[in-house]
Design brief:
Helix content: over 70%
Largest sheet: 2 strands, antiparallel
Number of strands: 2
Distance between the termini: 75 Å
Low-confidence stretches: 1-5, 367-371
Strand order of the largest sheet: 1-2
Oligomer: single chain
Structural class: mainly alpha
Radius of gyration: 24 Å
Shape: globular
Mean pLDDT: 83
Number of helices: 21
Length: 515
């Protein structure tokens, strides 16, 4: 397939249809309707992906040996079927499997660029979706007796942030309709990649995780998997620091060779993404330390925190350190009193800002743009792009193309603004920005309302705040599966708490009536 295929109308319309399927999978209250929507997204996403990567080096074997490729595909489908059957038999398996596969990425060339894709997680998502939707559609076919029974059982309405999240997935696809079709990479190609690689599969992941019964045992299982991986990755980082040799990321190897300092990235392709993962894992371990008073548990938590903290320092990820500090502030405010934490935070910010302003040379900030790796120019350029088209932006995925066009130079090699709010403003204008801000507010309300005293909900809320702040410094908000996982778990726990509160209020009302 040539690039002309990608620039034609059908991939764009197909992307909108696939996004609508993903949104329906999140919001539909009928099991049958949700199952058909999931199936539509599962079918359309690979088709759109093949359109994008048909001429990539990874598919060279397919072109040369089509028969072997077909056999391999059939074997993969058989393995996927077995995994779907296993998850159908034990539905809660999708939760620890998600925690297990979230960190692992495989580089795939597409659209003239290389994306580090979560292939193991995609397998889990597909198996989980198939394991649920096939039995639903089969039962609907067998038991359907007329129009009245076609809808199937009705689920309770979704939370506001889930509706906004579904709306954003569709809006992103709609705004790709006017993304630039040329450039390196083309804006529409980037939009297609974001939808197919991230938004569509992660929407299905949220739909499946949201419907699980998140018991204390299941939450602790996922916590154990996450902390085990974080510690294992930390030891890999130690090896890299000691040997001064990176396992992955040739780009980072070049960066290390140009600077006096050395940064580690473990099994990740970027030290900031590794730092984000460690920071979020540390917040979970800190929650255990604050709320579990058993001595052996507290000593174990302290040991894990020491291991992860040391490796986090080796990443030299300033954005991750800031995100960790914000998450820790949330934990302190929820564990004790919020007002002293806020006052202390303001004092630290004021003193720190004054020190930096009065002694910029001590922090290497004589040239802020240079010290920030060119991000200052990217941010100001992103703001200028937003001002050029404030209402609708230049189209989904268009930041890199438009930045290179408007601001040619060495800094244009950077792929985004490293600030998700500015990227959205430049690409989607006020329309996308307002929806994004509404999503953040609605998610914060759902995660924090009534969470005090519940360590599980507090851990999710603190991790979400840390992640959002990290996206202000390093982007990747809805492109990170952790965002969707936190929202799914937090939404499920919030809905359960709300239902329990409503039920308790009803019982109290009945008791007063009897009295």
């Amino acid at each position: 397939m040539s690039i002309a295929v990608l620039t034609g109308p059908w991939p764009r319309l197909g992307l909108v249809v696939a996004a609508a399927c993903a949104a329906t999978a999140i919001l539909a209250r009928s099991d049958e309707r949700r199952a058909w929507a999931m199936l539509g997204a599962l079918v359309l996403a690979p088709v759109l992906l093949l359109v994008d990567v048909w001429h990539s080096p990874q598919l060279g074997f397919v072109h040369r040996h089509p028969l072997e490729a077909v056999i391999g595909a059939l074997v993969a489908l058989a393995v996927l079927g077995v995994a779907a059957w296993a998850i159908h038999r034990v539905p809660w398996l999708v939760a620890p499997l998600t925690a297990l596969t979230v960190p692992f990425r495989i580089p795939i060339a597409s659209g003239g660029t290389t994306n580090n894709l979560l292939v193991p997680l995609y397998f889990v998502i597909a198996a989980s979706a198939l394991g649920w939707l096939v039995p639903v559609l089969w039962r609907a076919r067998v038991t359907r007796s007329g129009p009245a029974s076609a809808a199937g059982p009705q689920r309770p309405p979704r939370l506001l942030f889930e509706k906004l999240l579904a709306a954003y997935v569709v809006l992103y696809a709609l705004q790709s309709l006017y993304s630039p079709a040329t450039g390196a990479p083309a804006g529409f190609v980037k939009a297609l990649q974001n939808e197919v690689f991230f938004y569509l599969p992660f929407a299905l992941l949220l739909a499946r995780l949201r419907d699980l019964q998140w018991s204390r045992r299941l939450l602790l299982q996922c916590l154990a998997v996450t902390l085990t991986l974080a510690v294992a990755f930390s030891f890999v980082g130690y090896v890299e620091e000691i040997t001064k040799h990176l396992i992955l990321s040739s780009k980072l190897v070049l960066s290390n060779s140009l600077h006096a300092y050395f940064t580690v990235n473990s099994v990740f392709f970027d030290p900031n993404i590794f730092g984000r993962y460690l920071a979020l894992a540390m917040l979970l371990a800190t929650t255990v330390l604050l709320y579990d008073e058993r001595v052996r548990v507290q000593l174990g938590s302290i040991a894990l925190l020491a291991i992860m903290w040391t490796c986090l320092v080796f990443t030299l990820s300033r954005s991750s350190l800031v995100a960790l500090a914000a998450g820790m502030a949330v934990l302190a405010a929820m564990r004790w009193r919020a007002r002293p934490v806020i006052y202390l935070g303001l004092v630290v910010v004021v003193i720190g800002g004054a020190v930096v302003v009065t002694h910029p040379s001590k922090f290497g900030l004589q040239n802020f743009n240079l010290a920030s790796g060119g991000r200052a120019n990217l941010i100001t350029g992103g703001v200028q792009l937003f001002l050029d088209r404030p209402l609708t932006g230049f189209g989904s995925g268009s930041f890199t193309t438009e930045y290179k066009h408007h601001f040619p130079g060495p800094a244009a090699s950077v792929s985004d603004s490293h600030n998700i709010a500015i990227t959205i403003g430049a690409e989607q204008g006020i329309i996308g920005e307002l929806l994004y801000l509404a999503l953040l507010v609605a998610a914060a309300v759902a995660l924090f309302r009534g969470a005090r005293g519940d360590p599980y909900r507090i851990a999710v809320a603190a991790a979400f705040v840390a992640l959002v702040l990290h996206t202000m410094l390093y982007a990747d908000f809805l492109e990170d599966p952790v965002t969707w996982t936190l929202l799914a778990v937090g939404g499920a726990l919030a809905a359960t708490a709300s239902a329990r509160s409503t039920r308790d209020t009803g019982i109290q009302h009945d008791l007063r009536a009897v009295a």
